[in-house]
Amino acid sequence: MAQSKAESLLGDFSALLQQVGVRGVLPVCNPPVAPDTKLITNLTGLQTFLEAYLAQVLYPVELPAIANACGHVRRGELRELIELDQRLAGDARLKPFAAASRQIGVLQLKRMKPLRDERTVQRYLRAVESGQAAGWHTLVYGMTLSVYSIPLRQGLLHYGRETLSALAQAAAGAENFFNPACQDMLGTLLACLPQNVEQTVPSSKMVTVPLRRYSQKSLL
Fold this sequence. Notes:
With 220 residues, this protein is mostly helical. The protein is built from nine helices and no strands.
């Protein structure tokens, strides 16, 4: 049941990514990776897009946010959790994902409302309902790992795999996504995930890195 709770949140977020399309969730890149059409039809463009997400969003922001939220809930640190929520709101790298993230986070958080004994969960929910916090899906995911005693490493690996795959499919379309060349490229990117998870787990503070600059690549 614990694993299904985490999978439910990621399933909802992945489905929403498919609905809003790539334009709604493109990370900021220098140069921009925004395609002229809804779908990225070139493998080079898709790789550039996914590398931008990994370097700018997943590794420096989302994985540390999940890990820190998990730790705050385990220690009953509501104030620190709300401060983390508010810092995420000020991070420009999350702006393209904000609406989807909050929508799914609040939905999953409300599903945890029956857990009356989880005081930090209940108080965070009230903070979200009052507008004091946004309810980012990454923080709720971290809360889920804590509440249902899911190992942090396992949860971070699952999050990285599922989210990157969902973004790749939203960007490439189902037909191109299941192309062997696309799957090989995705596998290469995912091979770096365990190393980044190991770097995230020992961290006790929110860590971010400057935006990475990318060389010009054709998206045509």
